[in-house]
Amino acid sequence: MNPLDFTENDASGLQPYEQFERLEYEALAEKKRKALSQCQFEGLAKKARHEDDSQAIFDEIMETMNHRRRRKSRKRKKSGRRKGLKNKLSPEVTRKLGEANLHYAHGRYEEAILVLKEVVRLAPNLPDAYHTFGLVYNAFGDKKRALNFYMLAAHLTPKDSSLWKLLVTWSIEQGNTGQARYCLSKAITADPEDISLRFHRASLYVELGEYQKAAESYEQISQLFPENVEAPKTGAKLYKKCGQVERSVSILEDYIKDHPTKADLSIVDMLAAVCMENNVHDRALQHIEHAQLLYCSGKDLPLHLTIKAGICHIHLGNIEKAEVVTSLL
């Protein structure tokens, strides 16, 4: 199979990113089968460890497609191999790549394409060629084809978060939400500290109607960035939408536990509301009184929490306490 075939939909209509998803899934499944077989053979019962290995997987895919090239050892596939590969480019490939870039710089796009095809034939794992292909087709105004070539380049340089982020932006511009989601996941792997990427992916899940995945994404954001208030609140709403009330309560309670001296009272208000809606008034009251003790010592509770406390007392049959609370309004 020619690597350039990945820039087109395949015979079954799969888009390039879907082809990559399928091949990555198949490669991971094969690795798991081999690992399981090895464990059974050795009589081991170790827990499998999952690691991001997208570069190694993609290299294996590219080697499979390039039938004429000699299969390289796995040892050369470890980190740092891209630098080593570039240093070992043949003079012919280096010359042709420079020639293609020169054609592009002078607007000779058709000539650039012909030379780049030859570069891909000689060095199918070289990301520079696909990146230049992307530049050429973008100059042609064919942004969809350009994106597909950048996708190839990105898979060969999976830690280049800027390229994945560009693919996210272009995918959204083209209205391809599935592809945007795929590229967002890759961008997050490349730059796990960029919280905006995680929020973007979570909101995309909501747009696609995948509320469970969206809720889990917001919960993950809450765990990784505990100072963020919006993540647990949005996650709680989505868990509730999925009918998972206990998980909705849990994500809010976890936020409060992580902030024993100072918490956002809007979290307490939402937590109390969820508990009250599910007739767990004693639990709601417990959270309100806990908030008053820790966060509002010497001060009055906000009005909305005071009203909720009074309603809870009524439902629990504490009429006198309810009257005391409501008298403060």
TrEMBL record:
Q: Does the keyword DNA repair apply?
A: no
Identify the PROSITE patterns for this entry.
Answer: TPR (PS50005)
Q: Which GO terms describe its biological process?
A: transcription by RNA polymerase III
Alphabetized SMART domains for the sequence: TPR
User: Which key words are in the record?
Assistant: TPR repeat
Identify the stretches annotated as TPR repeats. 127-160, 195-228
Q: Does the keyword Membrane apply?
A: no
For this protein, the record's Pfam families field holds:
TPR_11 (PF13414), TPR_19 (PF14559)
Quote the SUPFAM superfamilies the UniProt record gives: TPR-like (SSF48452)
**Highest rank taxon of the organism:** Eukaryota
- Where does the record place the region Disordered? 63-92
Composition bias, kind Basic residues: at what positions? 67-86
PANTHER family (alphabetical): GENERAL TRANSCRIPTION FACTOR 3C POLYPEPTIDE 3 (PTHR23082:SF0), TRANSCRIPTION INITIATION FACTOR IIIC TFIIIC , POLYPEPTIDE 3-RELATED (PTHR23082)
The protein's name in its UniProt record:
Uncharacterized protein
